[in-house]
Amino acid sequence: MSFDLVLFGGTGDLAWRKLLPALFQAFRHGTLPAGGRIISVARDDLTDEQYRSRIRSRFDGVELAKRPTADEFARFAALLHHLRMDLSQPQDYARLAAMLQARNADSLVMYIATAPSLFTTVCEQFAAVGLNGPATRVVLEKPLGHDLPSNRAINATLRRVLREDQVFRIDHYLGKPSVQNLFAMRFGNALFEPLWRRETIANIQITIAEELGVETRGAFYDQTGALRDMVQNHALQLLCAIGMEPPINASANAIRDEKLKVLQSLKPWSPDTVGQQVIRGQYAAGTSQGQAVAGYLQENGVAPDSTTETFVALRTEISNWRWAGVPFYIRTGKRLAGRNAHIVVNFRPVPHPIFQTPAGAANRLVINLQPRDGLELHLLAQGAAQHQNAPALAPVHLNLDFDQRFGTERVGAYERLLLDVIAGRLNLFVRSDEQEEAWRWVEPILEHWRTDPHGPRLYAAGSWGPSAASAMIARDGFCWSEEV
Ligand code: BG6
Q1: How far apart are the C-alpha atoms of 389 and 208, rounded to whole Å?
Q2: How far, in Å, from the CA of 217 to the mean position of ligand 1?
Q3: Are residues 227 and 119 in the same domain?
Q4: What is the pLDDT, as a whole number, of residue 361?
Q5: Which of 174, 179, 230, when mutated, tests ligand 1's pocket best, judged by the most ligand atoms within 8 Å of its CB?
Q6: Same structural domain, 121 and 178
Q7: Catalytic pick from 81, 234, 342, 448?
Q8: CB 344 within 8 A of CB 204
Q9: Confidence check: pLDDT of 435 > 90
Q10: Whether 94 contacts 127, CB under 8 Å
Q11: Does 137 lie in the same domain as 279?
């Protein structure tokens, strides 16, 4: 199958850091279809050769195992081309069209890795020169809008020039192997399904913790914040994967229909519930990996009086028969105590205990996404010989480490998703109605914060966030997984 992949923003940060390394890995693994072209489009006036040599030097900074040998790079570089374009100029799209139509590839991917403000212009302009035919697939990065009205406006423009099944809204969390395994665990095994409900599950916790601060993205992040950057997309997609009903088949629309229902069932907010059940925080100076680090307000590009949140913890519920009353907690933040993403399913304790058990001990399933990918099942067992009448049980766990089991040379999120786009597989991409529903749900939180005089709570870099996040969950009689 021949393909042309046009990278709008081909000299930008996302292309260098994520897309080209992922395309190279696919090339190395032999999964990138032969007969493809990767066409970088940007303002820079570069020949193909100059573009290739820039990429070559970028690969020197990539970890050794993912760096191409000279021979590998020479073969990969043959796929790379560069076209200088001013994205506001219609005649430049005509030049692009001439280049693409001369070849007429089976699959034409338009990857729009530019500033979000250009998304709709680029789509309208390439459509105006006839590049929106049935072979075209358009990939859009988040953030798609900054609130519900702006997201709807972008989707409305897209609908005018493309069919929904031509639009690939990327959420790289859906490409992570651990998220694939979550679907496999739930819908490929009969074991968990009977337990996957309110009668047996006490609460579910989704944590995406990062050790890093905002790094070089201060200016972008200050306009965005953790709710828009992580909760509206990645965390809600994980919540959908854990809470959705079994889809009728593995097709993209069957999966997306079920995810949409979860988003539609999320308990609506009131000003009171936002005030009590959504905690926002901002990191102050502290310590990360033994080094003193600056607070958020001292980061480059951040306004000195910024109230942007770098941490969110919240409680919600899925109001349906399966989950009514079960709290789902979401927590994400930068400059936390570790880089750690996991979902913890806490089961209810036994109804009538006959053993002595440590306080609060119960079964727990942990789905680890990062830094390692695996499943842990926490059980209670009897260890050493016991002589008492009511013997004591101790916690033990079964640990399935997917990296160990399947090797670490697994397909990365961007590699997987790029191959899916080229092949036209939409399963792991977000449909417009899902995205709008997620914005609709976060909107009252944004609204509340706009007028809330308190601003975010400070937490020391290197901690687990503001203590209010622990107090919030403690009100339900639970605690975060690291506090057990
Ligand atoms: C991105 C966010 O979508 O996800 C970043 O914009 C965040 O702020 C990143 O750091 C986290 O992704 P991962 O795969 O490193 O957990």
Answers
A1: 43
A2: 11
A3: no
A4: 83
A5: 230
A6: no
A7: 234
A8: yes
A9: yes
A10: no
A11: no
For the sheet containing 374-381, what is the strand order?
394-401, 374-381, 364-370, 340-347, 201-209, 328-333, 311-316, 278-284, 457-460
Beta strand pairing call for 311-316 and 291-293: unpaired
Element (H, E) at 283: strand 278-284
Q: How many Å lie between the centroid of ligand 1 and the Cα of residue 246?
A: 28
Domain limits for position 137: 3-141
The atom number, within ligand 1, closest to the CA of 369 reads: 16
Sequence-distant (6+) residues with CB within 8 A of 283 are: 213, 295, 296, 310, 311, 333, 334, 335, 458, 459, 460, 461
Does residue 30 lie within any of the structural domains? yes
Question: Higher model confidence: residue 238 or residue 102?
Answer: 238
Strands 201-209 and 328-333: parallel
Q: Say yes or no: 99 and 248 in one domain.
A: no
Q: Residues of the chain with pLDDT > 90: what percent?
A: 85
* Ligand 1 pocket: which of 140, 173, 229, 414 to mutate (most atoms within 8 A of CB): 229
- Residues 178, 314 share a domain: yes
Residue 275 within a domain: yes
For residue 365, the tally of other CB atoms under 10 A from its CB is 21
Q: Is 234 a catalytic residue?
A: yes
What is the helix (H) or strand (E) element at residue 435, kind and residue range?
helix 432-451
| Ligand 1: nearest atom to the Cα of 370 | 16
In terms of C-beta distances under 8 Å and separation of at least 24 residues, what long-range contacts does 349-357 make, across chains too? 349/202, 354/390, 355/380, 355/382, 355/390, 355/391, 355/392, 355/393, 356/388, 356/390, 356/391, 356/392, 356/393, 357/392, 357/393
Q: Does residue 438 or residue 358 have the better pLDDT?
A: 438
List pLDDT tens digits, range 215-234.
Answer: 989 999 999 999 999 999 99
- What atom in ligand 1 is closest to the CA of residue 233? 3
Residue 17 lies in a domain: yes
Sign (positive/negative) of CA torsion 302, 448, 264, 209? positive
- The number of distinct structural domains making up the chain is 2
Ligand 1 shell residues, CB under 6 Å: 210, 229, 341, 370
CATH number of residue 280's parent domain: 3.30.360.10
Nearest CA to ligand 1 atom 4: 230
Contact 364, 378 (CB under 8 A): yes
Least confident among 175-184, 327-336, 423-432, 435-444: 175-184
Write the residue with the smallest CA distance to atom 8 of ligand 1: 229
